[in-house]
Amino acid sequence: MAELRSPGAAPLPQAATAEAGPPAADMDPVEYTLRKRLPRKLPKRRNDVYVNMKTDFRAQLARCQKLLEGGGHREICVHGLGLAINRAINIALQLQASSQGALQLAANTSTVELVDDLEPDDPDEAGEPLTRTRNNSAIHIKVFYPGPQ
């Protein structure tokens, strides 16, 4: 599968489009605008935290601490997608370190299918919108207090 290309890159191959359309030879990526759709979310529970790269790290860490300490939750689930995987891991490790080892971690990875829309810059031209699917890695970390043994 072809990767996303910046404007001015070589023409996209036909395999990169999900819809059947005109041959790729007459498609110029400069004439299309890339619109990334939001990923499909997992069910949102009170103890789910979706980590991103736009929000401040300390604010996300404080939210997790508040859920564990003041929110009455014995476990939270930290989710990270793509570039935010590293940040999700760091948050989970910081939570574990600040609890002096009282918290345990259980991590699962997955692959999420994302959909991008390529919209023509000039709607008057014959170009029609195209869609492209791509895969992105995700991590789901369960941060919890172990039960009595």
Q: What features would you describe in this structure?
A:
With 149 residues, the chain is an alpha+beta fold. Helix content is 18%, strand content 32%. The chain is elongated. The N and C termini lie far apart (49 Å). The N terminus is likely disordered.
Distance between the termini: 49 Å
The tally of strands reads: 5
| Fraction of residues in β-strands | 25-35%
- Structural Rg: 21 Å
The strands making up the biggest β-sheet line up spatially as 1-4-5-3-2
Any idea what the shape is?
Answer: elongated
Tell me roughly what share of residues is in helical segments: 10-25%
Question: Segments where pLDDT lies below 50 for 5+ residues?
Answer: 1-25
Largest sheet data: 5 strands, mixed
Number of discrete helical segments = 2
Structural class: alpha+beta
Average pLDDT rating: 79
The topology string of helices and strands comes to EEHEHEE
What's the topology here?
Layout: E1 32-36, E2 48-51, H1 57-69, E3 75-81, H2 85-98, E4 104-120, E5 130-144
Parallel strand pairs: 2-3
Antiparallel strand pairs: 1-4, 3-5, 4-5
Helix pairs in contact: 1-2
What's the short story on this structure?
This protein is of the alpha+beta class and 149 residues long. The protein contains 2 helices and 5 strands.
Any descriptors?
149 residues, alpha+beta, 5-stranded mixed sheet, elongated, disordered N terminus
